[in-house]
Amino acid sequence: MTTTYDPTHPRYDDEADLRVEMERIFDLCHGCRLCFNLCPSFPTLFDFIDARGGEAAAMTPAEQDQVVDECYQCKLCYVKCPYVPPHEWALDFPRLMMRAHAIRHHKGTSVKERLTDQFLGRTDLLGRVSTMAAPVVNVLTGRPGSWPRVAMEKTVGVASMRLLPPYARQRFTTWFAARRSRPARDQATADGGASPGVGGTEQGSVSVFPTCFIEYMAPEIGKDLVEVYEHNRVRCSLPEGTKCCGAPWLHSGNVAEFVRSAGRNVQVLVGEVRRGREVIVAQPTCAYVIKQDYPIYLEHTPLADDARLVAQHTADPAEYLMRLHRGEGTELDTVFPGREAGIVPDEVTYHVACHLQAQNIGLKSRDLLKVAGVKATLVQRCSGIDGTWGYRADNYDLARKVARPLKAEIERAGHSVVCGDCHLANGSIEQETGLRPVHPLTLMARAYGIHGDEDGDR
């Protein structure tokens, strides 16, 4: 038995070795049970072992595989588990599950599963095509249960009843490039000169990693982010040449494709960091991947040091702004005309995304809203999406079950406005409650009196 989460280890793809390691980990989990309410994997695991008199070794391979299938990589194990590395027991449940998916991918999966992996993994190709034909694509895919969606489920395995995010007509990078070509007299504010916010000199410089969601689906979030940052005298630029962070490849077990994605992005982002820019990532899943997974999966490559450097200088949007607010010699503008005019509500429901909790950075968006005078009622329940897991037809019913407590808590909070950092989770919230969540940076923009297009250019 080999306790390894290193994909370059010679026994990483040894299935027999993995099965024995699963017995060890599952036995530890069964004895602890702190994760009993985090995801379907753990109740399933405990029931199987309880039915065998507490013997984890008595589980069948099929039962072990069911535990793997029901793990959606929320990463909340890291928040609760007392045995994660560097503990001597080295219990890393999410990476054990990823090892199982990698071995499954290495052995070969069904044709339909491979089609689903390719469809969900090639986000940039799908995004480029879909934004060019956004009105048509959105009509065809926007209604759950329609015949195009049924056809999608039968061919590429995306659940026909899952609410899909619409594509924007204009990509975020297109908007940013056009904005940077404005006349010089309009450019001073955008480049950190005379800002309409706090007076004074530039407070920082960042490189906004768009992610697939902001680039192709929700450019309005990126626009609000840039406006809020520049309002607070932070210069914004975009990295040239980055693509999808690679999370869909990693979660489907395609380590080779993920390493290629990670390597390509690190080569671009490290240049941004060396120019004195922090990397800002407005999607928690992508930020987690860059911070945590890039250094691990590039550890034994020439880009290992670069990956660690990029990870150290990557931040969530609210995380960076709160550093400014609490820093020495930096500050946020605390004049909010939009709040005074009643454009932004006094209270909102704030969903705490799983992949933000797993980053252990605290509740920075909640803190940021508090600066603007907005009280946030917290909801810390999983949305059941987590990467691409909840989009797959095979997981749809279970994903909806996972989201029920989230729906109940949002309804119990009773606020008309729900906000959340995760575009994936926000789609699930809209499907479950009928409320379309807004990003915390959008609320901040409105509080500052910045009136963008909240629905984007659909």
Q: Describe it for me?
A:
The protein is an alpha/beta fold and 458 residues long. Among the domains are: 15-107; 333-447, 3-Layer(aba) Sandwich (Rossmann fold), CATH 3.40.50. The chain is built from 24 helices and seven strands. The chain has helices at residues 15-32, 41-50, 61-69, 77-80, 93-107, 111-121, 123-132, 134-141, 147-156, 172-180, 184-190, 211-217, 219-231, 247-251, 255-274, 284-297, 304-312, 317-326, 337-340, 354-357, 364-371, 396-413, 423-433, 440-447; strands spanning 204-209, 234-237, 278-281, 314-315, 347-351, 375-379, 418-420. A four-stranded parallel β-sheet has the order 2-1-3-4, with helices on both faces. A three-stranded parallel β-sheet has the order 6-5-7, sandwiched between helices. Helix 7 packs parallel to helix 12 (211-217) and helix 10 (172-180) runs parallel beside helix 13. It starts with 14 loop residues before the first helix and ends in an 11-residue tail after the last helix.
Strand order of the largest sheet: 2-1-3-4
Radius of gyration: 22 Å
Span of the ends, CA to CA: 53 Å
- The fold-level CATH name of the domain at 333-447 is Rossmann fold
CATH architecture classification of the domain at 333-447 = 3-Layer(aba) Sandwich
Low-confidence stretches: 184-196
* Count of DSSP strands: 7
Strand content: 5-15%
Shape: globular
The helix-and-strand class reads: alpha/beta
In the CATH scheme, the class of the domain at 333-447 would be Alpha Beta
What is the overall pLDDT average? Answer: 92
Work out the helicity level: 40-55%
The helix count comes to 24
**Main sheet overview:** 4 strands, parallel
